[in-house]
Specification:
Layout (H helix, E strand, L loop, with lengths): L2 H17 L26 H11 L13 H10 L9 H18 L15 E4 L5 E2 H7 L1 H6 L17 H11 L5 E7 L5 E11 L13 E12 L5 E8 L1 H8 L5 H9 L14
Parallel strand pairs: 1-6
Antiparallel strand pairs: 1-2, 3-4, 4-5, 5-6
Organism: Arabis alpina
Protein name: Pathogen-related protein
InterPro entries: NTF2-like_dom_sf, Pathogen-related_defense
């Protein structure tokens, strides 16, 4: 084979490599060197293909961007009572549940979740009927965890009357530094993981008409995780006493009462707390 034929063959192979494109199959059929390209050669779509792939797999965040946990991380590091060895079962479970809560609070679509098996997921709280992944995502983690069967006149928080946004706004307002979470003990390993946990923050903002006390708010609880072979959650059971949480949040005086005391108005005596009837 003379050098001119070798040059033509090399040029054809080169063109074929440039034309190969997994999203534009017609380019893969352009196998001759006789095509006259507008810009002298087959188009290269590497950049736009990368953009397409990134956008296709792009996570849609509820607030437009990934969450910033600097404040609550600082709260956690300052207030944690257990420091688990890196890579231990306790640290692994602690991080997994934090990631699970992050996804339900900040991601919009279940297909973007990495910590759960969406088809099998169920959340059980204090022995109540389980909630599916779609139901939990729609309600929001606060409403899902605070659902109860008390008569409405005895409910200090009514999840049925709260939206995802209003529930998160209420607790972000009350606990502006965040609501930290830690594992206190792990009693069994995968695939069924039993554990004890602690949840805490500082009541430094208004909550449902109650003035802040500045005091720590915390509660303890027990949980059971059922995970698959990839450690994705299929079921989670949570047991805790909501009274521990609300007992602290309702200690602050009603804001109307606080204002009247500061102003010297004695009409505060005539006003009753809307949460205690």
């Amino acid at each position: 084979m003379d050098s001119s034929k070798e040059d033509v063959l090399a040029s054809g192979v080169s063109s074929l490599k440039l034309a190969a494109d997994k999203y534009r199959s017609i380019l893969n059929d352009e196998k001759t060197g006789n095509i006259q390209w507008r810009y002298g050669g087959p188009p290269i779509f590497d950049t736009v293909n990368k953009l397409f792939e990134e956008e296709r797999t792009h996570v849609q965040w509820r607030y437009g961007h990934p969450p910033d946990f600097n404040s609550v991380n600082q709260l956690f590091e300052e207030g944690q009572t257990k420091v688990w060895p890196e890579g231990s079962l306790e640290e692994t479970v602690q991080n997994a549940i934090k990631s699970w809560e992050m996804e339900f609070s900040h991601k919009i679509h279940l297909q973007d979740f990495k910590t759960i098996n969406p088809d099998k997921f169920k959340l059980f709280v204090n022995g109540r009927e389980g909630l599916s992944a779609e139901e939990t995502l729609k309600l929001g983690s606060y409403n899902a965890l605070l659902k109860n069967s008390l008569p409405k006149e005895f409910q200090y928080y009514k999840p049925e009357e709260e939206s995802f946004e209003s529930s998160h706004d209420a607790f972000r307002s009350a606990l502006p530094r965040g609501f930290a979470w830690e594992i206190l003990a792990v009693y069994s390993g995968p695939p069924v993981i039993a554990f004890k946990f602690r949840h805490w923050g500082y009541f430094e903002g208004n909550f449902k008409g109650h003035a802040p006390t500045g005091e720590m708010v915390q509660f303890l609880g027990l949980g059971v995780l059922k995970v698959d072979e990839s450690l994705r959650v299929e079921e989670i059971e949570i047991y805790y006493d909501p009274g521990e949480l609300f007992g602290e949040l309702l200690k602050g005086p009603p804001i109307s009462e606080t204002k009247t005391i500061l102003s010297g108005d004695n009409t505060a005596e005539k006003q009753s707390c809307p949460f205690i009837h």
